[in-house]
Structure formats: structure tokens, C-alpha cells
Write a structure and sequence with these properties.
The protein has 183 residues and is an alpha+beta fold. It is 31% helix and 30% strand. The radius of gyration is 16 Å and the shape is globular.
């Protein structure tokens, strides 16, 4: 993916658990990453978690770059095997997604919206992806609004082991309509 946006070019590269652990650690323990639920993580915990993801055949992690510099984290997963097993009935072409924007001292207006758009573009670049599934914390109102802005429709609340989540879906058609692209 290489998506030019009004804020610059966003790209993604595969995450390297050992090389990227220190960077990710600084992101996930930041107060703005509270919903990532790793506030108390040690560097080794982050390294171990992303080694686990790297080894999993149904879960992938990527470092997102803004103008070539690390700026966000993206995860995609197959909800038949990861995160949502037994919590809903997956359909063919479902892809789960998480994203985290890195903390910054110099925020750029519209950056988070550009990131989620770039993430969705990346997911839908795969012709097998028919629908993106997310399960953010029910109290994370900011991400609910962001998800809705790119086409997600909330279905229902679900109980995961670590949180009460809002199960939401976005089809390719819903995403394109939210972007104002004629279908």
C-alpha cells in the first residue's frame, strides 16, 4: 500500500517483532493507548506478543509509515480463528482489524481519519476481503465515530474475555459509499 492523502503518503510494512518492539512498547504504554490494554506491559511483553502474532498463520501485524516514518500499527486477523471465535457467525471474506495511531507531540488534523482510510484501503485491496470486522471497547466513543465515518455499522455488544465490545461490520460497498465512490 502507498496511499497519498491530504496529510502525506501512508504506507505499511510487515512488523518485525524484535526490531520494532521498543518503538511499539513506547506506543502501547502511552496514556492515549489505554484501549490497547497494554499500559503496564514491559518491553519483553510487547516483544513476546508480537512474536506470537508473527508466528500465527491467521494474524498479521504491520507498522504504518507516514512519509517513511513509523506512525501507526495495523493488525489484520481471520476472525474464524482469532479474537472472535464463537462470538459471531463469520462469513466468507470476513477480515478482522485493529489499528493504533502513535502518540505525537505535533498532531496533524485529520491524521487518524487518514490512517483508518489507508488501513481499510489496504484490507480491501485483497479481492477476497468482503467485509471488515472490528470489536472496539464499547466505551471508546471516538473510535466508534471514526468507524462509522468510514462505513462501519454497529451490530451488537459482545462480551470478550478482556472487555465488553461493540461488534461492527463494514462491507466493501459500505466503505466505498462512505468514501463517496460510485459503486
Amino acid at each position: 500500500m502507498s496511499a497519498p492523502t491530504g496529510i502525506g503518503t501512508l504506507t505499511v510494512r510487515p512488523l518485525d517483532p524484535l526490531r520494532d518492539a521498543e518503538l511499539l512498547h513506547s506506543w502501547v504504554i502511552h496514556p492515549k493507548a489505554a484501549y490497547w490494554m497494554m499500559q503496564d506491559a514491559k518491553l519483553q511483553d510487547v516483544e513476546r506478543e508480537y512474536m506470537r502474532i508473527a508466528a500465527h498463520e491467521h494474524h498479521d501485524a504491520y507498522v504504518g509509515l507516514h512519509e517513511g516514518r513509523p506512525a501507526f500499527l495495523m493488525e489484520k486477523y481471520d476472525p474464524r480463528y482469532v479474537e472472535l471465535v464463537g462470538l459471531y457467525e463469520p462469513e466468507p471474506g470476513d477480515v478482522g482489524m485493529h489499528f493504533l495511531v502513535a502518540p505525537t507531540d505535533r498532531p496533524i488534523h485529520g491524521f487518524t481519519r487518514a490512517v483508518i482510510t489507508a488501513v481499510m484501503d489496504e484490507l480491501f485491496a485483497d479481492p477476497h476481503t468482503r467485509r471488515v470486522v472490528v470489536e472496539p471497547d464499547v466505551s471508546n466513543k471516538a473510535v466508534h465515530a471514526l468507524n462509522e465515518a468510514v462505513g462501519f455499522v454497529a451490530e451488537r455488544e459482545i462480551d470478550k474475555p478482556e472487555k465488553r465490545a461493540l461488534l461492527s461490520f463494514c462491507t466493501r460497498e459500505q466503505y466505498l459509499a462512505a468514501r463517496g465512490v460510485a459503486i
